[in-house]
Design goal:
Length: about 375
């Protein structure tokens, strides 16, 4: 039986080791299941306190994807079996996924994420936690949750709201696929290398003089990546998000019905914008409202409170939102014809939205209270 996630340590000239995590379900684009989340959390906690480990690398097997998101089928089956009830499967998966993401954000030692190929949903949650987030010419990064009746979780409430202008709202509503230049522009990535640079990078990591000081190790890694980036053999290319920032801000301005009207009546020759428009308008109206509620959080909440907010909303989406129908249409029956609870964003009731936004827990019994 092949392991869904592989852990290795690489020796270095300095005597320190590098911990390498490889997501290893290539045919499922390395989508995260709960066993992988648990194994990674356990191993990373061990490496975090192990003085021999100078840094950690996160990578995906194959050349198509780092990680295409969470494997939500188990949550779907549990939620369908007990309608309108919070399931252990949903609660455990999201709780443990967010704990893993938060661990990466708080890791202390350098965490390099090799964000080559597809990085979506839960994959972006992992990548956002890395200190050194490397993009390549093949990177395709998105938060496509609006298509399955969810919303951009895994810390999206934190990082989307810190992007330029209305970009975060745009990404949440449209599931727009960012290229490397886009991802650099919105700070999802902070280094750019060619996909062919992976082996030379690993070789160079072994030559760094790692020591016991995490701050010095961070600087050494930044220096290495910057020097490799200066000699990179492929062009970063242009960022449509940056180029059309003003238009995006206008398109996303006003309340939810304004934005829906602006997107519905948009006439454009830009292929990327046509795709974004089509995806947004086909998305769950409940998800639209959640994306707006998320954007309204602004930058007031710290990362821990963002995850706490998200956990309540995510489990609620599974028990009485559009999640089951979205997953059915996209992943189970694959008819791509979801029958959303509401046909239009204007039809969504305050009660339906409030039921999704009301946390099932008080502060003192919240599964993430230790953050």
């Amino acid at each position: 039986m092949t392991q869904d996630v592989i852990f290795q340590t690489l020796g270095t000239l300095s005597g320190k080791s590098i911990g390498v995590v490889t997501l290893n379900i290539e045919k499922a684009l390395n989508a995260l299941n709960i066993d992988m989340v648990q194994a990674m959390t356990k191993q990373l906690k061990h490496w975090q306190t192990n003085d021999d480990i100078a840094m950690v690398v996160l990578d995906g097997s194959g050349d198509k994807a780092f990680c295409a998101g969470g494997d939500v089928r188990a949550i779907y089956h549990a939620s369908v079996a007990t309608p309108n009830k919070m399931t252990d499967e949903a609660c455990e998966f999201f709780t443990q996924e967010y704990q893993l993401d938060y661990l990466l954000h708080q890791f202390g030692k350098p965490v390099l994420v090799w964000g080559d190929g597809i990085v979506m949903g839960g994959g972006l949650g992992l990548m956002a936690g890395g200190s050194h987030r490397v993009l390549t010419e093949r990177s395709r990064i998105a938060m496509p949750e609006v298509t399955i009746g969810l919303y951009p979780d895994v810390g999206g409430s934190y990082f989307l709201n810190r992007m330029p202008g209305k970009t975060g709202l745009f990404l949440g509503l449209t599931a727009y696929n960012m290229n490397a230049a886009d991802a650099m522009y919105v700070n999802v990535g902070n280094h750019f290398l060619a996909s062919d640079d992976k082996e030379p990078l690993f070789d160079a990591l072994a030559d760094i003089h790692w020591n016991d000081n995490a701050q010095v190790n961070h600087q050494a890694l930044t220096q290495l990546l910057s020097s490799m980036q200066n000699k990179v053999s492929v062009a970063l290319g242009d960022s449509p998000l940056e180029q059309f920032q003003q238009q995006i801000n206008l398109l996303m301005s006003g309340g939810i019905e304004d934005v829906h009207h602006q997107l519905s009546s948009l006439q454009t020759e830009l292929d990327w914008l046509k795709r974004a428009q089509k995806t947004a308008l086909a998305g769950s109206p409940l998800s639209w409202h959640l994306v707006f509620a998320q954007a309204a959080l602004g930058t007031e909440l710290d990362l821990a409170d963002c995850f706490k907010w998200e956990l309540g909303v995510s489990v609620n989406c599974c028990s009485h939102g559009d999640f089951c129908e979205g997953v059915r249409a996209l992943l189970i029956d694959k008819d791509r014809n979801p029958q959303w609870r509401f046909t239009d964003v204007a039809d969504v009731t305050d009660d339906a939205l409030s039921a999704l936004l009301t946390s099932p827990w008080q502060a003192n019994n919240h599964p993430l209270k230790d953050f």
